[in-house]
């Protein structure tokens, strides 16, 4: 796999660069977990299971989408193609990224020049006469939105953790007649959610947290889909 070559985007250096639509399947095929933001929970829940993982160093939780049942496995990449109906925002951002300037509260846009989506022949132009194209402006706006979404998601997740609504669980799935345990993940504790006082429940509603919580709970049923995909893959 080609190494990434992430460079700051520049209207002269990248004057002739074009970006094809699509996602980086080469990178995704070995990812079994990927961060998700609360704003996409409803959409993610229609295709993938979600979980929370805990950072052992700082104790913070992060919501993730599950593409596979073990490290290095992505059951949605088949024959070099992405088979799901859509990709979460963290994947859709590629080949662009944002880097924060250490001194100031500003972000710079970067591009992975080694990406198979980047070239000069086909795709969407980034610059025309030295000015950003509408395509690039849209991509930039999406990147900035993602940073804001991530910030809101961090607050949402911290709140759930503070209210002790996240619980470590083992998911048991059946693959081709064999049971398999998935450990080390956290889910929303439905029992505790139902036992919240009216006041605490109302607070969740006021903060706009109920919708992502219910989407998250719905998503866990998609684990059965992963088990099915894995069984199919093993059979073939």
UniProtKB/TrEMBL annotation:
<dbReference type="Pfam" id="PF07277">
    <property type="entry name" value="SapC"/>
</dbReference>
<protein>
    <submittedName>
        <fullName>Multidrug transporter</fullName>
    </submittedName>
</protein>
<dbReference type="InterPro" id="IPR010836">
    <property type="entry name" value="SapC"/>
</dbReference>
């Amino acid at each position: 796999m080609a190494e990434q070559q992430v460079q700051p985007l520049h209207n002269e250096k990248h004057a002739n660069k074009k970006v094809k639509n699509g996602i980086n399947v080469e990178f995704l095929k070995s990812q079994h977990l990927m961060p998700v933001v609360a704003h996409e929970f409803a959409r993610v829940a229609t295709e993938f299971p979600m979980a929370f993982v805990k950072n052992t160093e700082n104790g913070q939780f992060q919501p993730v989408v599950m593409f596979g049942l073990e490290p290095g496995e992505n059951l949605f990449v088949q024959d070099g193609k992405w088979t799901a109906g859509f990709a979460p925002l963290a994947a859709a951002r590629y080949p662009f990224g944002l880097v924060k300037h250490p001194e100031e509260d500003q972000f710079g846009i970067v591009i992975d020049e080694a990406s198979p989506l980047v070239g000069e022949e086909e795709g969407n132009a980034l610059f025309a006469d030295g000015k950003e194209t509408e395509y690039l402006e849209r991509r930039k706006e999406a990147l900035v939105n993602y940073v804001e979404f991530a910030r809101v998601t961090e607050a949402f997740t911290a709140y759930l953790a503070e209210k002790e609504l996240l619980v470590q669980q083992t998911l048991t799935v059946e693959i081709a007649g064999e049971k398999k345990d998935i450990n080390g993940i956290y889910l929303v504790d439905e029992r505790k959610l139902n036992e919240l006082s009216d006041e605490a429940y109302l607070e969740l509603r006021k903060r706009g947290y109920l919708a992502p919580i219910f989407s998250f709970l719905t998503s866990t049923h998609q684990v059965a889909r992963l088990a099915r995909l894995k069984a199919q893959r093993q059979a073939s």
